[in-house]
Amino acid sequence: MSVHQPNSKKVTTHTLLAMKQRNEKIAMLTAYDFSMAKILDEAGIDILLVGDSASNVMAGHETTLPITLDQMIYHAQSVVRAVNRALVVVDLPFGSYQGNSKLALESTIRIMKESGGHAVKLEGGAEVQESVKRILSAGVPVMGHLGLMPQSIYKFGTYTVRAKEEAEAAKLIEDAKLLEELGCFALILEKIPAPLAQEVAKILTIPVIGIGAGGGVDGQVLVTHDMLGITKEFQPRFLRRYLNLFDEMKNATQRYIADIKSQDFPNNNEQYQ
Prior knowledge:
By secondary structure, the chain is α/β, with parallel strands linked by helices.
């Protein structure tokens, strides 16, 4: 197993475009706090997404909808402080951009000024184009997100694979082209058929990053807590767990408790005389 040796040069939107052009895959993970972001950045991750998935994994909500702009800024601040190399992308949370491009720009400006993040991400195609245009007009890089869009869960009613039907697939391709034309620097495709995702990646000149979208795209993203096995309940087909930290951390905690109860901790070497 070869271990990736990171290039220490700072990752920019230009770096990602060059990676696509030379067919080098892009590695992306989520981060919500300083300690975890520091580890991931030192490991050589290309993009860190301060995802609204913090609503689920950090706060225990059932969906991504409850997390607020203030909370997203707090998480983003924590991540940015840890990062030397990775590009930090911050999710615009539900209610901070939909249907109101002026609000979208205000939300984005707050994120950029208060957190120091490098770019924002929002969900949707044609229906959010005014927001995308307005954010880009202020000079802020935008990452798009199509396919399964967790913020629209109540509209879709399910987390199943999207764009299986011809009409939805055609709309996804049109939306992807539109987002590139508007000026988005990259696009996330979530939980769509692999052949469709590969087709989109071939059509677009900007990087296409998949989650549950097969290997024919330009990069991959997972939620770090899923990848490390800190979460247990979430088990989609696309998830590869690299550790089982839930059980390892639980076992370590149980050993700690047992050592205190048996008066083994602290021992003589672990106290001051």
